[in-house]
């Protein structure tokens, strides 16, 4: 059981789980003595959420993108084959850790993921809700 708790704590450190969800998992482990499957399938309610990307520029160049988690998960599963079919795309996806993104979705990462404000006042916000 200590291995599972250690894994939960690592996921909190990496930002893959929030403290409340981690506490629930640890409590479930301690109460039931059963293993919790951290590699579970993503629930349908989570798949109905959206990845929202907001870019606000001081110059007024604003971007709002909403992507369904269901679409992102499907694209990530087939996305690793993109570079094989379109070699010119490799420079855009070479540093993308597809497995990490799929794991984040499988573990139902939720809430604010990125919040950046540049020196000139431009802002980038990425949220799953």
UniProtKB/TrEMBL annotation:
Pfam families for this protein: SHOCT-like_DUF2089-C (PF22746)
Name by which UniProt lists this protein: NAD(P)H-nitrite reductase large subunit
Every YvlB/LiaX N-terminal domain range: 3-33
InterPro entries according to UniProt: YvlB/LiaX_N
């Amino acid at each position: 059981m200590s291995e599972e708790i250690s894994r939960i704590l690592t996921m909190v450190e990496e930002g893959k789980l929030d403290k409340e969800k981690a506490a629930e998992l640890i409590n479930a482990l301690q109460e039931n003595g059963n293993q919790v499957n951290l590699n579970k399938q993503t629930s349908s309610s989570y798949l109905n959420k959206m990845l929202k990307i907001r870019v606000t520029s001081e110059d007024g160049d604003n971007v709002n993108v909403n992507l369904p988690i269901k679409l992102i998960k499907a694209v990530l599963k087939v996305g690793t084959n993109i570079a094989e079919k379109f070699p010119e795309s490799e420079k855009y996806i070479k540093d993308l850790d597809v497995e990490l993104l799929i794991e984040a979705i499988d573990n139902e990462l939720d809430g604010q993921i990125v919040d950046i404000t540049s020196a000139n006042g431009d802002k980038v916000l990425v949220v799953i809700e």
